[in-house]
Amino acid sequence: MRLKTVLQTFRPSFLVLTPACVFLGLSTALASYASLNGFIMLLVLVGAIAAHISVNTLNEYHDFNSGLDLKTNRTPFSGGSGALPANPEAATAVLIAGMASLLVTITIGCYFIVERGISILPVGIAGVALVITYTQWINRSPLLCLIAPGLGFGILMVVGAHLVLTGEYSRPVWLVALVPFFLTNNLLLLNQYPDIDADASAGRNTLPIAFGLNTSNVVYALFMVAAYSTILLLIVTGYLPGLGVIALLPMAFSLFALSGAVRYSSRIGEHPLYMGANVAAALLTPLLLGISIITG
């Protein structure tokens, strides 16, 4: 039962986002004609997934300890897994799992520094800081809470994967990373809508809490436009092949999710089809973008 609870706090269905972002970094590395090492690629993926697991488990542990888990109305996309309220005795095991996962990421990062050089250190430090501070500090600042997911999954994972695989930073990868930056921010933003009251009672101060849902809808729309406009701009300027237009297709999911946010507001959790569309956009866009880069 304890092991099952720990595994539930990993939020396995949410971990799919990590390979999608790492794949995008891999695609830009392949496009730069770098000589890639299969073992290094595997370590990049393991380190990124371990970091994601650490964020999830530490978030679940702190939300349980603060009592937030007992106040949320869970949906498939928000409100936590509910694993610890069902089995409180596993709390210490979940905390250990979160710290152990973070240690795995740090160990792999140290290996990369030895093998690839000190240039990876800033990305590593920023990533570890995000993991440690996300639940207890970042969630209390509307702006930081808004952009932290995109920084972690969009910028740090995509750019970090490219850097480790190629040994260098490059302008195109920073521009490409903006796409999952905006879409991952939107992914977490919409997931906060059903949890407004519960989050506020626990001291969180997300964008929907601080500025309301109408403003949050505007921000969602702006981020959506920014993500897909970036793709168009990169195609026009030659940074992406023409095939990159396939990455515009998931915009239909984002538009559908936005329509649900406007229509149902904080009750969007009762209509999971809209929230699922939001997830689909965040996953499919970097995947199709990576495929277009490799193929083109």
Question: What features would you highlight for this structure?
Answer:
single chain; 296 residues; mainly alpha; Farnesyl Diphosphate Synthase; 72% helix; globular
Descriptive report:
The protein is 72% helix and 0% strand. It has 296 residues and is mainly α. The chain has one domain: Farnesyl Diphosphate Synthase, CATH 1.10.600. It starts with a helix and ends with a helix.
Approximate strand percentage: under 5%
Question: Which structural category fits the helices and strands?
Answer: mainly alpha
The figure for the number of domains is 1
The succession of helices and strands, N to C, reads HHHHHHHHHHHHH
Q: Give the low-pLDDT segments.
A: none
Q: What count of helical segments does DSSP give?
A: 13
CATH architectural category: Orthogonal Bundle
**CATH T-level topology:** Farnesyl Diphosphate Synthase
How would you characterize the largest beta sheet? none
**Which outline best applies?**
globular
In angstroms, what is the radius of gyration? 19 Å
The number of strands is: 0
Q: In CATH's first tier, which class applies?
A: Mainly Alpha
Helix content: over 70%
The first-to-last residue Cα distance is 48 Å
Mean pLDDT: 93
